[in-house]
Specification:
The complex is a heterodimer of chains A (299) and B (352).
Chain A: H1 8-37, E1 40-42, E2 48-52, H2 55-61, E3 62-64, E4 73-74, H3 76-108, H4 112-123, H5 130-141, H6 146-153, H7 167-192, H8 196-203, H9 208-237, H10 240-245, H11 253-262, H12 268-298
Antiparallel strand pairs in A: 1-2, 3-4
Helix pairs in contact in A: 1-12, 2-12, 3-7, 3-9, 7-9, 8-9, 11-12
Chain B: E1 3-14, E2 17-28, E3 32-36, H1 43-51, E4 58-63, E5 66-67, E6 78-81, H2 93-103, H3 108-121, H4 137-149, E7 155-159, H5 167-184, E8 187-192, H6 195-201, E9 204-209, E10 212-217, H7 219-224, H8 229-234, E11 239-249, E12 252-256, E13 262-266, E14 273-279, E15 284-287, E16 293-302, E17 306-313, E18 318-324, E19 337-342, E20 347-350
């Protein structure tokens, strides 16, 4: 440990201030407001009445309330929305991984000069607003869109394939929205990978698949995990893709929150409570993962 | 001599550039064979072609008589020690050493036992459960060696394995490598740009330059009887003089040095015209007078074990003489005129 120079301690507070301010204003404060609102009473014109209440959570979990006369009963409607959202996000993440890993591998194995061009091309669609891109996807996928018209003119199908307003459309939308978040961290990991290790494995009689499984994947795993998190977490709370590409049957958490906060029949405490529950779930999943990794390392 | 590896007219082209121009070599069984040359001469490309990491553009590579030119690297019974070791960073030392055995289908108990024996051989058994990153460069180098030797390859390929080590360690490893090769009886093909490494360890050396093999032979032959200007210049230090061949008689030529002095050296009949003459600086004696060549001392450089006497011939060419640093040697002062005596066979006429 280096000894602190004189004056360093007095500088510490002003130097750390921006960090504290940043975390305070952009993280602690908004999350705090959200958590606080979830324990308040609903005001019917939107907004809240400053009276403590657990009714938002009660409404989420129970059909017949905790505070009524009859025995409480679990409410499945919202839980099934959660379940569907998680499932949609899992599928979107798997799709992103299946396409993102080979893409990242391809870019990372190009000559250093052209890698920048490829990365640039990956980011180009993201200069366009997400809303516009999602709407365009709807145009591509709808019955009279290029996909179905193309398939029909080729004689592959007789009637348009119903893609819009299905789970598939939502998954495609999420996949399309978050693909770069998978490609970029995996690219960063593959770029650091020492390809001499693959040669060493081949030299020691490993097949290509064995080399991928035993050498490459363990070493680029941090990039894969980061990519999966970056896709899974926003997919879970997404509302644009489900709104624009899905139908009533594909209602997801993001849309539920959106409706509660912005809708005319909105319920701010309930919307906040859903967000708190979502955040808690994600945190539990992350902590569980982090602990499993630490155990693996120490084993 | 039974050939472990036979290269027949091996050509390597990358697009329009040719890295190897038809290399033909035979490497004997149990031989310590070195590919020596400056960077870019094609020695590493050749090694990588034997390992299977580079395609053969033309020609054939035979391993104990069997053509392996088109085979995948994981189907060739040769193993490589890589320049930067390429140890698997997420595996313990013993798992690294056992990797090849695992791939060959050996069961866990036997491969751990064999990997343990290999680590014992390179004095690293105590480090079996460490990660490669927890070892020093020299230790990592030995793990790489143990890993490559564990599957009992027919041929071991070594790609400049000592270049990342410091001088002391490098010198110790030279002896250890040579010993290991003799004990295991495995053919070693060693790539280096360091001529001292090549001279001290090899049974035979192939000197390469610009994608061609310039000369193949035992270290002494390479050093003392270089066939051309490149080999003479690249191996050790030498005085290269442009000379005129006056006459050849009975296998000896009379040549005229730039300063007008005439000396005799072996030459084939029919040699004539301008040629290069190589004279090693340590194959000369200095005297205050007499000698075949006369020169003026310009500077004396102290090198510890040796003294380097930089002189200038009468014709203006610089000329080095090496003397062993000993109390018996009279060191000439700068500015004095001296006579240089050539040892028997010191002067060699070179083909260009």
């Amino acid at each position: 440990m280096a000894a602190r120079r004189p004056g360093e301690r007095s500088l510490l507070v002003p130097l750390l201030l921006p960090t504290w301010a940043m975390i305070g204003v952009f993280m602690v404060l908004p999350v705090g407001v959200m958590a606080l609102y979830s324990f308040l009473t609903r005001e019917f014109r939107g907004g809240v009445d400053w009276t403590f209440s657990l009714s938002a959570y009660d409404q989420f979990f129970f059909d017949r309330g905790l505070f009524g006369d009859e025995a409480p009963r679990l409410q499945w409607a919202y839980i099934s929305i959660f379940w569907r959202s998680i499932w949609q996000a899992v599928i979107a993440t798997v799709l992103c991984l299946l396409v993102g890993f080979p893409t990242a591998w391809f870019i990372a194995t190009r000559p250093a000069r052209s890698r920048g061009v490829w990365l640039f091309l990956i980011t180009v669609p993201y200069w366009v607003n997400l809303l516009i891109r999602t709407v365009s996807l709807r145009f591509l996928l709808r019955d009279t869109g290029p996909l179905n018209q193309g398939l029909m003119s080729l004689g592959l199908v007789d009637a348009p394939l119903p893609v819009v307003n299905t789970n598939l459309a939502v998954q495609l939308g999420l996949f399309y929205s978050y693909l770069p978040f998978m490609v970029l961290p995996i690219y960063a990991a593959v770029e650091r990978y020492n390809f001499a290790l693959s040669e060493a494995a081949a030299d020691l009689y490993a097949s290509r698949w064995t080399t991928l499984r035993e050498i490459v994947l363990p070493l680029v795993k941090p990039g894969i995990v980061a990519g999966c998190l970056l896709v899974f977490v926003p997919s879970l709370g997404a509302f644009l893709a489900p709104d624009l590409l899905g139908g009533a049957k594909t209602f997801m958490i993001g849309s539920l929150i959106d409706e509660q906060i912005k809708g005319s029949q909105g319920n701010w405490p309930f919307g906040a409570a859903v967000a708190v529950i979502l955040m808690t779930l994600v945190l539990i999943a992350l902590v569980a993962y982090a602990r499993s990794v630490t155990r693996e390392r120490s084993a | 001599m039974k050939a472990a590896i036979e290269l027949r007219q091996v050509v390597k082209r990358y697009g329009a550039t040719t890295a190897l121009h038809g290399v033909t070599l035979e490497i004997g069984d149990n031989e310590f064979f070195t590919l020596l040359g400056p960077s870019g001469c094609g020695k590493t490309t050749l090694l990588r072609m034997i390992a299977g990491f580079e395609d053969v553009t033309e020609g054939q590579i035979l391993l104990f008589g069997e053509d392996i030119s088109g085979r995948e690297p994981n189907r060739r019974p040769v193993n490589t020690v890589f320049q930067q070791y390429a140890l698997f960073p997420h595996m313990s030392v013993i798992d690294n050493v056992a990797f090849g055995l695992k791939m060959k289908g050996m069961d866990l108990a036997s491969r751990r036992q064999r990997a343990g024996r290999m680590l014992e051989m390179v004095h690293l058994l105590a480090f079996a459960d460490r990660l490669p990153s927890q070892l020093s460069g020299g230790q990592q180098q030995r793990v790489a060696l143990a890993r490559a030797l564990a599957p009992e390859p027919k041929v071991l390929l070594l790609d400049e394995p000592l270049s990342a080590l410091d001088l002391k360690l490098r010198q110790a490893m030279r002896v250890e490598l040579k010993q290991l090769q003799e004990e295991t009886g495995i053919t070693f093909v060693f790539v280096t740009h360091d001529q001292e490494e090549a001279l001290t360890m090899s049974d035979r050396i192939a000197v390469m330059s610009a994608g061609r093999v310039q000369q193949v032979g035992p270290p002494r032959e390479i050093y003392e009887a270089p066939v051309n200007r490149f080999v003479a210049d690249f191996i050790g230090e030498t005085n290269l003089l442009e000379v005129e061949v006056e006459a050849v008689e009975g296998g000896m030529a009379r040549v005229v040095l730039p300063g007008g002095h005439r000396i005799a050296c072996p030459a084939a009949a029919g040699t004539a015209g301008r040629h290069h003459l190589s004279i090693r600086p340590e194959r000369l004696a200095i005297a205050s007078q007499g000698g075949e060549i006369e020169a003026t001392v310009e500077r004396v450089v102290y090198l510890g074990t040796d003294l380097q006497i930089i002189t200038r011939l009468d014709g203006g060419a610089a000329f080095d003489v090496r003397l062993q640093n000993s109390a018996r040697v009279a060191v000439p002062a700068p500015g004095t005129r001296v006579g240089l005596h050539l040892e028997e066979g010191a002067a060699r006429l070179l083909a260009d």
